[in-house]
Amino acid sequence: QVQLEESGGGLVQAGDSLRLSCRASLGIISSYGMAWFRQAPGKERDFVGGNTWSGGTTVYADSVKGRFTISRDNAKNTVYLQMNNLLPEDTAVYYCASGRYQRLAVVPRSPMMYDAWGQGTQVSVSS
After folding, report:
1. CA distance to 6, 32, 82, 98, 114, per residue, from 27 (Å)
2. DSSP 8-state symbol, 74
3. What tens digit of pLDDT does each residue of 28-42 get?
4. Secondary structure class of 95 (helix, strand, coil)
5. Fewest CB atoms within 10 Å of the CB: 11, 50, 110, 123?
């Protein structure tokens, strides 16, 4: 079972950048697709973006496309979410997640397809 830990959240102003990290302290992520989700107060947990186990395919939600970038370093057992040009509507708790199945060729957008989650890190963007 993969165990994940996020870091890098904080309070920033609109237009600023943040980089979130997600490190697997237990298990190995190299065979699993990884994704980022976010959840604002009173809302459902939404897909932000993810990539396949090989890193060959990366997809993003339309709301973050062109501003956010996902990368992974399998040697460090870590995935990253680089967030640029942050907007107030990006305010949420951000979670990373590890895929339920190994070596999928696609990036699922449903939380049900991920079975290991970090504790979340708060990102707050002021206007």
Report:
1. 15, 11, 23, 10, 15
2. G
3. 899 999 999 999 999
4. strand
5. 110
Q: 69 or 55: which carries more pLDDT confidence?
A: 69
Handedness of CA 69, 93, 28, 52 (dihedral sign): negative
Q: What is the pLDDT of residues 96-114, one digit of tens each?
A: 999 999 999 999 999 999 9
Angle at 35 between CA 34 and CA 37, to 5 degrees: 155
Kindly give, in sequence order, each residue whose CB lies less than 8 Å from that of residue 9, ignoring residues fewer than 6 positions away: 18, 20, 94, 121, 122, 123
Q: Are 122 and 20 in contact, with CB atoms under 8 Å apart?
A: no
Distance (Å, rounded) from C-alpha 124 to C-alpha 127? 10
